[in-house]
Amino acid sequence: MGILSAAVGVTRYRVVDPVPGDFWSWAADRVAARAFREREPDTAERRSGWAAVAHPLEEGVTLADMAFGDYLVLALRVDERRLPAAVLKKHCLREEARVAAETGRRRLPRQHRAEIRERVRRSLLARALAVPKTADFTWHVSTGQVLFLSCQTGLREAFEDLFLRTFERRLHPVVPYLLAQELLPDVDRRRALAELRAEVLV
């Protein structure tokens, strides 16, 4: 989901750990190391990396692409290749029959069938078209606030994992309760919030 879309779903995070003094050069190096790169032929079912918000389907991210004042802005790109089980089964049976005929066997051993299955799977994946998904995020560096513009579980997990591997900083989800603690103006109201207990309304 793009940051310039008319409507977006947002997942809030916070980065608690401090960042280096030379943040932008440090971040540029780390993002470049984890930038999305297409590979041909590609047998991976899923590949992820960073891309520029302005052109998320192109490779390469420069400092100018991601630095906006005190904000680091990037797109997470995830390419997936899906292989229907029925298609894999059909091609495996065909290859097993061919190998069995060549070797004169009525039935191939389990290990041999497993090797054929993996070889066929990789061959089919190399020919399958990757479906790209992108979701933008912003990181306000001075406050540590991070907004990820997706609520999809799979994309959130991919984002959290890649963020940790890239920046070696863990993302802490900001749930409504924690947000209320920050926004309440006085001690009495924060104390009242702390005394709230969950109720099951059934």
Explain what this protein looks like in three dimensions:
- There is one protein chain.
- The protein is of the alpha+beta class and 202 residues long.
- The protein contains seven helices and seven strands.
- The protein has helices at residues 23-33, 63-66, 85-103, 110-127, 153-167, 176-183, 187-194, and strands at residues 11-15, 46-51, 67-68, 71-80, 131-140, 145-148, 171-173.
- Helix 3 crosses helix 4 (110-127).
- The chain starts with 10 loop residues before the first strand and ends in an 8-residue tail after the last helix.
- The relative contact order is 0.19.
- The mean pLDDT is 88.
Summarize, please.
With 202 residues, the protein is α+β, with helices and mostly antiparallel strands. 41% of the residues lie in helices and 20% in strands.
